[in-house]
Amino acid sequence: MIDIDDQGDVRVVTLDRADRRNAITLAGLEALKVAVRDPPTPVIYLRGSGVAFCAGADLETVGSLATEGGVEPFVRQGQRTADAIESSPATVIAGIDGAARGGGIELALACDLRVATLDATFGEPGVTFGLFGSWGGTVRLPEIVGMGDALDFSLSGRVLDAEEALRIGLISRIVDDPRSVAEEVADNDPAALRHIKARIRDRGDKEDKEAAEIESFRTLVETHAEKLQQFGE
């Protein structure tokens, strides 16, 4: 259910299960983790096929967890996949056109950028049937939108349109073609992209982060010294 297509500087990763609105299974999570782990491109564009981005976890899979004792492996697999997206050396951009629900929201939260069309909608419906997002969503959501909006979004179970998602910071842009943002980012220097992501994503203490920032900047200056001198002439 995961399709990979390397196109120039962008790896297009498609959640390809349109008949189930791209609901993701354990096998799909593993395939997605592999797709983002060590790509040959500086940018990954994550999208869904058909009319949805991702409806979340496959409910047939979820429904079998209690009887099969598979709750922890299922949650851990989702967490590992989201962590792989977050820690990928590539800049990962979620292009959201249509519905993003539950686990689909959590996969998008792990991406570096979330861009959407006006047709995109967002919801955490788990609360309506007694669940919640457990693939790191309760950690990432308040970091991205703030505690108040995170609680409102998660506890109400309401669906946000693209404009409200933009207002609370769940997405960063509304565009006609989300793929164009991936191309825009890919036009930049690949090494700079890697270092910027690593520094902004760094969760160490302030002193360690500042030291790492110096080293990253030093590496880039040394790499591009000749080009920088030409710019200065």
TrEMBL record:
The keyword Zinc does not apply. PROSITE patterns: ENOYL_COA_HYDRATASE. Keywords: Isomerase. Belongs to the enoyl-CoA hydratase/isomerase family. It holds the Pfam family ECH_1. SUPFAM superfamilies: ClpP/crotonase (SSF52096). It comes from the Archaea. This is Enoyl-CoA hydratase/isomerase family protein. GO terms for molecular function: isomerase activity.
